[in-house]
Design a protein that fits this description.
The protein has 140 residues and is an alpha+beta fold. It has one domain: Cytidine Deaminase, domain 2. The protein is built from five helices and five strands; from the N terminus they run H-H-E-E-H-E-H-E-E-H. The protein has a five-stranded mixed sheet. A hairpin with a 4-residue loop joins strand 1 and strand 2. It is globular, with a radius of gyration of 14 Å. The N terminus is likely disordered. Bound molecules: tetrahydrodeoxyuridine. The site of tetrahydrodeoxyuridine has 15 residues, from helix 3.
Length: 140
């Protein structure tokens, strides 16, 4: 069985939608939730946290990775991202793609959707962030 079929994508996306409810987004009114499936089977969730100094806003995806790693969960299986305020699937921003790629190989599954989850995009971090030269610098 492939890794893809072992992941309960719908359950992970449920958790991402739940996480979006905890978004702090009084400036954009654009809630985002992320659910990160860790290799130990646990799921770490997070939301976007904005700031009146807009550049200090932290996306849901990066929040989830920082939270999980800080809890000692350092290896990941998949990431789901839900944007209930969007009429289209919202993909991780460039900064988040780079942060995800720091902790995941190119085949790492990334799922993202807007309000209509029938339009969920299922892809990989390798597709979203190709030619990842940073891997050449990483010291295990
Ligand atoms: N945002 C995320 O949290 N993740 C994404 O993938 C797209 C954008 C947040 C940042 C900001 O709080 C709001 O969505 C609007 O850009």
């Amino acid at each position: 069985m492939s890794q893809e079929t072992q992941i309960d994508r719908e359950a992970l996306m449920d958790r991402a939608f739940e996480a979006a409810e905890l978004s702090y987004s009084p400036y954009s009114h654009f809630r985002v939730g992320a659910a990160l499936l860790c290799q130990d089977g646990t799921v770490v969730t997070a939301a976007n946290i904005e700031n009146r100094s807009f550049g200090m806003t932290i996306c849901a995806e990066r929040s989830a990775i920082v939270k999980a790693h800080s809890l000692g969960r350092t290896r990941y299986t998949a990431l789901a991202v839900a944007c209930p305020d969007a009429g289209y699937p919202v993909s991780p921003c460039g900064a988040c793609r780079q942060v995800i790629s720091e902790f995941a190989g190119p085949d790492f599954p990334v799922y993202f959707t807007g309000a209509d989850r029938s339009q969920t995009v299922c892809t990989t971090i390798g597709s979203l962030f190709p030619y990842d030269a940073l891997k050449e610098l990483a010291q295990p």
